[in-house]
């Protein structure tokens, strides 16, 4: 009896300890489940916050983003596409399919839109026939087509852009400064009145009587034919506009002495004086002498 009681007494603490241990295991499992549930909730909340933030950013961008680029990009791409088609049709024969140049024409990579606009707006390109120098003639392409080809060439390595001159820019330009710059840098070849003059090996400095202000600036920046390049370090943009305004002044100003005789200066004027003036006087003298003999 004593033994059984002792053993029962000894067994009871064990059983109670086992019973007491079970709730602990259950509480640990519940705590783990609660932590995983809270972690899922936090992740779900973070995802919702992130989605709301992205949605708000998209709405703000749609409302506040400038709308000019969205409309300009297709037009610019269309101009480049049309320009490439025109280039392959009329220019690639000499300049190569990718404007890399050939034995018939130089590379156009990096020359810029200004060089294209100058050469094509003055009719020098496409070249009618090989010669020492391309002469000015009516353009073969319309202004829109020239702009498209220039836009395409501009994408091939960049280069000088077409200058944008307004009437206000030309009217506000310093005409006296433009005249000084022209006489110092341009008159040696183009003559003081812009009438042009011959050079060596069949080349010549063309007359500026038909040059537009944009073409004057383009020629200064790109240096076509034998003309040197006048970069912004030599003649800045304001000075270039002043030179263009002075060239237009030469075109519009009438000759105070009557006929300008090509604006070639005192040499043709003196030749006319000798040939016509002195010749007329000699003719009168001979006529008077013949009448006296009679």
CATH class of one domain: Mainly Alpha
Average pLDDT metric: 83
Order of helices and strands: HHHHHHHHEEHHH
- Briefly note the structural class of the backbone: mainly alpha
- CATH topology (level 3) name of one domain: Cytochrome Bc1 Complex, Chain D, domain 2
| Content of β-strand | under 5%
Number of beta-strand segments: 2
Unreliably modeled segments: 1-21, 68-72
Quaternary structure type: single chain
Subcellular location: Cell membrane
Subunit structure: The cytochrome bc1 complex is composed of a cytochrome b (QcrB), the Rieske iron-sulfur protein (QcrA) and a diheme cytochrome c (QcrC) subunit.
GO molecular function: heme binding; iron ion binding; quinol-cytochrome-c reductase activity
EC number: 7.1.1.8
């Amino acid at each position: 009896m004593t033994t059984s009681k002792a053993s029962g007494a000894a067994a009871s603490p064990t059983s109670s300890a086992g019973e007491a241990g079970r709730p602990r295991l259950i509480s640990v499992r519940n705590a783990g489940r609660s932590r995983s549930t809270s972690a899922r909730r936090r992740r779900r909340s973070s995802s919702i916050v992130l989605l709301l933030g992205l949605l708000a950013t998209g709405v703000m961008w749609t409302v506040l983003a400038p709308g000019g680029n969205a409309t300009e990009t297709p037009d610019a791409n269309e101009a480049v596409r049309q320009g490439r088609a025109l280039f392959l049709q009329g220019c690639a024969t000499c300049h190569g399919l990718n404007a890399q140049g050939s034995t018939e024409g130089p590379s156009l990579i990096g020359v810029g839109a200004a060089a294209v606009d100058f050469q094509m707006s003055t009719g020098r390109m496409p070249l009618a026939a090989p010669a020492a120098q391309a002469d000015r003639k009516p353009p073969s392409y319309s202004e829109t087509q020239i702009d498209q080809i220039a836009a395409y060439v501009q994408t091939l390595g960049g280069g000088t852009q077409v200058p944008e001159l307004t009437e206000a820019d030309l009217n506000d330009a310093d005409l006296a400064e433009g005249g000084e710059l022209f006489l110092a840098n341009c008159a040696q070849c183009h003559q003081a009145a812009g009438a042009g003059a011959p050079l060596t090996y069949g080349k010549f400095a063309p007359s500026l009587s038909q040059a537009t202000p944009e073409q004057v600036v383009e020629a200064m920046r790109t240096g076509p034919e034998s003309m040197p390049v006048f970069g912004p370090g030599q003649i800045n943009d304001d000075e270039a506009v002043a030179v263009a305004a002075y060239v237009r002044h030469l075109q519009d100003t009438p000759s105070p002495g009557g006929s300008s005789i090509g604006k070639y200066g005192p040499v043709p004027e003196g030749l006319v004086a000798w040939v016509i003036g002195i010749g007329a006087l000699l003719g009168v003298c001979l006529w008077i002498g013949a009448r006296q003999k009679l």
